[in-house]
Amino acid sequence: MAKSSSLQKTTLSKGVKVTFTVAADEEELPSDDDDEEAISASEDEEGSDDERKHNKLLEAISSLGGRKRKKQSERSEASVQVSEFAVNAEGTGEKVNLSDLLGTVEKNSGTSNKTKKQLRNLQNSKETLELPLNKQQTEKIQRGIAYEKTAQEVSCWNPIIVQNRKAEQVVFPLKQEPLGPRRVEQVVAGWKVQTPLEQEIFRLLHNNSQPVVDPVLTPVEEASLKAMSLEEAKIRRAELQKARALQSYYEAKAKREKKIKSKKYHRVQKKARRKEFLKQFEDMCKTNPEVALEELKKMEMSRMTERMSLKHQNKGKWAKSKAIMAKYDESARKAMQEQLQMNKDLTQKMVVLSDDEHESKDEESETVPDFVNDPEPIIDSVNPWMKGRLTREQPEVRCVTPEEAEAAVEDNTEEELLGEFERKRRLRQADEEGSTPAEEKEHASEVVVEENEDVVEISDNEENDDKEEEEEEEEEVDVSEFNSLFKLMRSEKTQEGQEEDGEGLLDEGPIRVQNMEDLEVLGEVFEPQPTVAPSRPQTAVAEAASAPTKKRNMEIDLREVLTKEAKVINVPFFPTVVEDEHDEQISIIKEAFAGDDVISDFMKDKRKQEAAARPKVVDLTLPGWGEWGGVGLKPSRWKRRRFRVKMAPPPPRQDQKLPDVIISEKRNASLAPHQVSHLPFPFENTAQFESCIRTPIGPTWNTQNVVKKMTKPKVVTTMGAIIEPMVKEDFIKSRTTTPAAKGPAIMFSGDKGARRGAKRPSERNQRRSQKRRK
Amino acid sequence: MKVKVLCRNPDDYVRETTRDIQRVPRNYDPTLHPFEVPREYTRALNATKLERVFAKPFVASLDGHRDGISCIVKHSKSLSTVLSGACDGEVKVWNLPKRECMRTVQAHEGFVRGMCSRFCGTSFFTVGDDKTIKQWNMEAPGYGVREEPINTILGKAVFTGIDHHHREGTFATCGQTVDIWDEQRSSPIRSFSWGVDSFSCVRYNPVETELLASCASDRSVVLYDTRESAPLRKVIMQLRSNTLCWNPMEAYYFTCANEDYNLYTYDIRHLDVPVTVHMDHVSAVLDVDYSPTGREFVSASFDKTVRIFQKDKGHSREVYHTKRMQHVISVRWSADNKYIMSGSDEMNIRLWKANASEKLGLLSTREKAAANYNKKLMEKFQHHPQVRRIARHRHLPRDVLKQKREQREMKEARRRKEQNVRKHSKPGSVPLVTEKEKHVVAVVE
């Protein structure tokens, strides 16, 4: 039975083989007989050619087949057709269906339900499988995956490359043998035991589990290393050291103090201790009253004992002797008094303030009447902020007095006039100071055009209003005066120019026409009579202001707007009546330049620049040279006169004849070819670059070590040394550590018997990786 | 009477030996040393001038070949040995310090197309026009013994290049395909091809030793990994690359020498745009080699010059040429970062200094310090126009100069035209293409 089944198996396998190897031919043959097929297959494989042999074989086969066929017809046992795997072996030509294979699975209880389910699903699904991708596409996918992988792998060099680029100095070859003597273990590593004596020694070493080769630490040492990392150990050691040191200091101090014999010292010490104690006690009262209570009890006890004893009562032998001396000796008297004082102190009953009392006191202190914190009653109800504080600030013009003085030295009409203006302005400001609160109040509603009658005036203070108007008028006068001054200057200049030019028909003047204002000025110059202002539409305010001034001077220009004091800062809360775009513009400009005195600033600027450009007197006097020198001695007048070098005056400034232009003359034509014209790349701002240039690196200014450090080259190579390319193992450790990490995983998967054996190498790996990490 | 005298400690001023330099006490008070910037500026200017004065890069010329030199190879373990292959199939082994030929081998019939030295330095490989790969012993045979290769492999097609693995016994050749060979076998263990029929150069990555790159005739540079079955990726440029070289210190960078007069440095992780385009040559670039420090590389060109580029700079820092040097076919940077070898059409190998004005030989400490200081000064003041003008000045052969000017003009014209086109077309329709993007046609996955 068993034999037949095995036979079946072999035939089956052969049959299958045939279907694979010679597929087409075999399918056509009548496929009832397996054996015949099998042999024919083998014959095919052999590929015999001898006809005679072939016939013989055929005969043999037929005889065989006949017998078997007979048998088959006879036997009809299920076991033959159905093998133990439930595969019907009868028709080998037929395909093996999934259902055939599934038969056993269903019956077998060993297989899990899940697989059964999956198989059943598979059986039921009628869908055909998708066609595999064509070759090009699969290759493309493969390449994509491979590329990604490689790119990722290569990226691990990134930190190293960045580090190398940033490094201040790189020494090639990168992997250099450490200088200095090597450890014995390293030297010995390549050396093998040969003589019996050496063997003996090595055996001894091994017995003590003394490592000979690479890991130079004994197991005990390694265990200790594992237990505590180096940093931890260092920290701990430092702590211990500190504790020990502190202890020894304390001991030494105590010893020293103990040796001190001075009574006074001890007394002072005691007093201090007492004080300290009292302080502590107070604290204690708050934090833990129980202990405090105990302390209190102790104190009470001591008081009691003091009261009972005769100590400190000047009754003792010492006291008596002192009493005798007291008449003559100041110190003795003092000592006795101290004793008594001590007694008094000790016997005094502790007076503890009751809590209620404290609280009441606290309350008292807390309940300060509210009006204390209240601000003072506002007198000026409209603007509490401007209570004279701001206005009292000195305007910046005040602090420029030295400059003014300097200006006065120069005999210049311009300056004089300017000075006058300044004075006037100051006067006006003084006035303002007086009237500011009212003024400020005024500002809130001052956007309103005063000329237009239909505007509701909120301010009821008529006087103030009038004042303001007056002020404005005055101011306008100032401004117009200023303008006229400028015009005067210009006309003078132009006249000069004209004189120089002779009777030029074209208006080629020395004045450079640069902007609109200049153009305007030019126009004015040639039409000297007072005309209407060039900027026709203006704010009503300006017009209103200028109305009175028109009587004196019928000119208004943009500059006036600029120089006008900031009266109209506040944003209008209600719509202004006359609204022009231009008006808005002007008011915006006004706001922007509020409070700036542009022109005088400009003049000052220009003067400053001129002064800076003027050559300074160089003092070359050497004190003590040719005469006596020292503290309080000045070089003689002769010497001063002789050695103070006046430099030649510079060529006239380009803007000398242009009163309202500053042309910078900082650029030096002879220096320009040596100067860097634009900021070079790695620097972010000029300051950085300049500081870099300013720092000297030479040995004239720096010490040797600093120079060495500053001038060290970026790349250092050793002469005659081959610089090998980087080696991955030297730089990237992660790869080498991964097998160590894998170790335990392998261990768990293996059986328990193998675990012991596997443990060692993994441990070693870990050790090695740890060492490397260090 | 007591007489007070000044007394000093002799240790402060007496030299220990007579060969010591005199001790000069210095006061570093800045007020005593004014004008530090102008003084340093002058020093920098002088240093720059001296650097130019002493710039004499040419060291030696090795003659002996009877045809143009097609390839040069460094010995991997010895600095003094260099091998060169010529267009008549001859291979010569040179001793550099002696400046003489040690050995001549008739290796191939026709060109010696490629050579490489084994990583251990015991043997070298040559490929030639006769479709063979030959392995030769580095040691010369004894007297009276015929020069014979250790190994000869007959291939099916001409090999155009060869490179050896940096740690294992495998090497790669290129020709119709890129093949990986085992030294022990006579057939390739793997061969890569990707729709291209000829490759001109193949190079192993010296750091990531399993990576390969090759230049193909379809204007592409192809990357391979020997562990993978298929090539990784290729980038197609506008013109063909002749050779390429990997940066030995930065694993993912390589530079290829292109026919369009430029060199391109690529990051293999981002092949779509080259990291840097190195321009300055006025004719096709034929060979490139990195300095072993990975900071610079040298390129040889058909315009008869050799140029040295910094790896991240667009323009060269140095150009070498002589009257007699013809088209430079191959160039190598010596393994100690000191010299450059160039092999050219007129049968000579020239030895150049890598730093033109560097003093060779041992330097005393003070010389070294002075050199360092000067170098630092030049670096500090490099942006100043005078310093820069002097430092940048180079003499060029007339035709190179002319060509350079011409090309500048052409480039300007092209730029102008593009600008005009952009100006007269719908905004956004003519996109701005950067110089880097211009040269890459496609990246094929």
TrEMBL record, chain B:
Basic and acidic residues composition-biased segments: 398-412
Subcellular location(s) of the protein: Nucleus, Nucleolus
Coiled-coil parts of chain: none
Gene3D superfamilies: YVTN repeat-like/Quinoprotein amine dehydrogenase
Start and end residues of each Sof1-like protein domain: 354-440
Keywords: Nucleus, Repeat, Ribonucleoprotein, Ribosome biogenesis, rRNA processing, Ubl conjugation pathway, WD repeat
GO-annotated biological processes: female gamete generation; maturation of SSU-rRNA from tricistronic rRNA transcript (SSU-rRNA, 5.8S rRNA, LSU-rRNA)
Example of a GO MF term: ubiquitin-like ligase-substrate adaptor activity
Pfam families named in the record: Sof1, WD40
Any one cellular-component term (Gene Ontology): Cul4-RING E3 ubiquitin ligase complex
Bias-annotated ranges (Basic residues): 413-426
WD repeats: 62-104, 278-319, 321-362
SMART domains (UniProt xref): WD40
Region: Disordered, residue numbers: 398-439
Pathway: Protein modification; protein ubiquitination
Family, similarity comment: Belongs to the WD repeat DCAF13/WDSOF1 family.
Protein name: DDB1- and CUL4-associated factor 13
Organism of derivation: Phoxinus phoxinus (Eurasian minnow)
